[in-house]
Design a protein that fits this description.
This protein is α+β, with helices and mostly antiparallel strands and about 450 residues long. The protein contains 18 helices and 14 strands. The strands form five sheets. It has a five-stranded antiparallel sheet. The radius of gyration is 29 Å and the shape is extended.
Length: about 450
């Protein structure tokens, strides 16, 4: 922004005032109603004020820089904040000091900034389009780029690219179904290969969000409580402590013996009474004491996480496709035939066995293949481990894809294309022939091309 303002002919002094209008002073010095001097009189120390000022550039409200995880709970106790209020969601130290909503708004405008350049001193109206953004900026901003401008920008670049463009078309909250339809239609007319849309406010929580409604205090308080409930705490704050749910003394599970790249591994599991996974053991007897001990410790840490409530799906998403030696073809498991590491093998097996994640299986289980062959049975409900009822078939079991014919025909065609196709070097899935090369339909990598 400073460089753009300089090129537009503004002086250094004018640029400084415009920047201060947009992003604030980021200091409590001479701040209205809550200056550094007043904070010292309220009982804060210079060190605590310094911590708050360091946090100011990264917050959207002064109260967030004065939060207990920033300046410390000791400061709250020293200035007389009740202990019950210290950890209360939505607690605002500035309001505790007696500031009204209007005074707090003026303080935020001075210290944090308006978050918009509209209304900045010295800025001429004809220069406003230079600074237009994808969405309205700040609480008072009105201007934003028209959604169709995103489409036209991508269309200008598309002829020079072989693939699609990863660029989201931002729509305002009041966008209609017809607006979305028009965006897709225009993208098709202009020759785009893909379009992604996002309507402001369509999710309960999103990275950037501002509100224009400041007339109701109750509404504001509710909004602050929502933000406090979903926002990540500042650096140094501890997550809430969870309770460990131990497994029964006698529990069921399975033991799977396999070889990954020629190295033997035993995967053992322990289950809760409802059949959900509660612990794992990974044994490798010929890999040396250090590697074996690291695998044992890793298995213990995963088991502790499962018993403290971390979903198995989080572990599966995090650790599949990790790549290190030993890796290679898998012998001994009916569904997983290749792994990029021992960890990848372990969580592919757990994903298939407990989460029914058949996208991790190179060979689908027999019951899945049977259901693909008998699509009339797809509407039957299945009882999954843990007592959950699966009311929707996995993606691999969908019998019809609009515009693409039946899954049986697709599987037959892919089977003819595979032939002696090798495994993908990147993810381990079986590739399909693509001209004189091979292509992985899972990750998009090409094999055998020069």
């Amino acid at each position: 922004m400073p460089e753009a303002l300089k090129r537009l002919g503004y002086t250094e002094g004018q640029i400084a005032e415009i920047i201060a209008y947009v992003s604030g002073t980021n200091t409590f010095t001479n701040a209205p109603k809550l200056s550094r001097k007043l904070l010292l009189e309220k009982g804060l120390t210079e060190a605590e004020i310094a911590k708050a000022e360091v946090a100011l550039p990264g917050v959207f409200d002064v109260s967030q820089a004065l939060a207990p995880w920033v300046i410390g709970k000791e400061a709250y106790e020293r200035i007389g904040v009740p202990k019950a209020d210290i950890s209360k969601p939505g607690f605002n130290l500035a309001r505790f000091f007696g500031l009204s909503d209007k005074e707090l708004g003026a303080l935020n405008d001075h210290v944090i900034g308006r978050m918009t350049i509209e209304g900045a001193p010295y800025l001429r109206d004809e220069h406003l389009p230079v600074f237009d953004c994808a969405n309205r900026c700040g609480k008072t901003g009105k201007r934003f780029l028209a959604p169709i401008s995103h489409v036209r920008m991508m269309a200008a670049a598309q002829p020079f690219l072989s693939g699609a463009i990863s660029k989201t078309v931002n729509l305002p909250n009041e966008a209609t179904v017809e607006d979305v339809e028009n965006i897709y239609l225009e993208g098709w007319k202009l020759g785009l290969k893909a379009i992604a849309l996002y309507r402001d406010g369509c999710k309960w929580s999103q990275p950037l969000s501002t509100s224009n409604d400041e007339s109701h205090e109750k509404s504001e308080t509710s909004s602050e409580q929502k933000v406090a409930a979903v926002a990540k705490p500042a650096e140094g704050a501890r997550p809430p402590q969870s309770t460990r749910h131990r497994l029964p003394k006698k529990r069921t599970g399975f033991t799977q013996e396999a070889r990954v790249g020629g190295h033997k591994v035993f995967l053992r599991t322990g289950e809760y009474g409802d059949g959900s996974l509660g612990e794992i053991f990974v044994d490798m007897h010929k890999e040396g004491a250090a590697f074996r001990s690291l695998m044992n410790c890793f298995a213990i840490s995963v088991s502790m996480g499962l018993q403290h409530g971390v979903p198995l799906s989080s572990f599966v998403e995090q650790f599949t496709f990790t790549r290190f030696e030993p890796q290679g073809p898998v012998e001994g498991h009916p569904n997983v035939k290749f792994a990029t590491s021992m960890i990848d093998y372990v969580f592919r097996v757990l994903g298939v066995e407990y989460l029914k994640r058949y996208d991790f299986a190179h060979v689908p289980p027999q019951e899945v293949q049977d259901e693909i062959q008998n699509p009339t049975d797809l509407n039957t409900h299945k009882q999954l481990p843990g007592g959950n009822v699966n009311s929707e078939p996995p993606p691999a079991m969908v019998s019809e894809i609009p515009g693409h014919g039946s899954t049986n025909a697709m599987n037959q065609q892919l089977g003819e294309m595979m032939g002696d196709a090798p495994m993908c070097d990147s993810c381990g899935h079986i590739t399909v022939r693509n001209g004189s090369c091979y292509k992985c339909l899972n990750c998009g990598a090409s094999v055998g091309c020069s």
